Amino acid sequence: MFNVVLFEPEIPSNTGNIGRTCVVTGSRLHLIGLLGFSLGDDMLRRAGLGYWHSLDVTTYAGWEEFLAQNGLGETDERLHLLTKKARKTYAQATYADGDFLVFGKESTGLPEELLARAASRCERIPMLPDATTLKDAGEWAARVGREQSHEALRQDVCGNFVDPDDYRISALNLSNSAAIVLYEALRQTDFQGM
Length: 194
Known about the structure:
- This protein is of the alpha/beta class.
- It has two domains: 3-127 and 172-188, 3-Layer(aba) Sandwich (Alpha/beta knot), CATH 3.40.1280; 128-171, no CATH class.
- Helix content is 31%, strand content 14%.
- It is built from seven helices and eight strands, in the order βαβαβαββαβααββα.
- The strands form two sheets. Strands 3-2-1-5-4-6 form a six-stranded parallel beta sheet. It has a two-stranded antiparallel ribbon with strand order 7-8.
- It is globular, with a radius of gyration of 17 Å.
- One of its GO terms (cellular component) is cytoplasm.
- It comes from Parolsenella catena.
- Its main location: cytoplasm.
């Protein structure tokens, strides 16, 4: 069984989608720190559909509590810290039953200090650069109610173009990222039906 870990998730529909993916794959969901929503949020339940009541989910006040309750050290080989700031890709990693796939919050990812302390545990999902993927940045900006150019959109710490009122970024969203990495981990461990 894999463990999907969300560090301070901000968008309830992402967490709901990830929760649904956890249920259908027999994975556990761990939520760390301040959540950008209530666990009773309708958007969370709607995204989780009928699966939310079947989800094995645990919440933690912070990173240290998460590590302690799961018997982990910061550089434990069962940890896979997903970030855009890693050299190794998720497909180059080796996964084993019981591993923890850790994703940061939508707007800023995992904290820099955590990444620095556990650099050997960091992995990334390869993506095309914004210049290639955001050819329609003007249209995208207009869709969210702005008449801006590509350069006028704010960039987050990872270089994604962000609408601060909408949380849209040019990269994969959190639920897509979690599904991609989880399914690679399941493939490597001969998940039933793969």
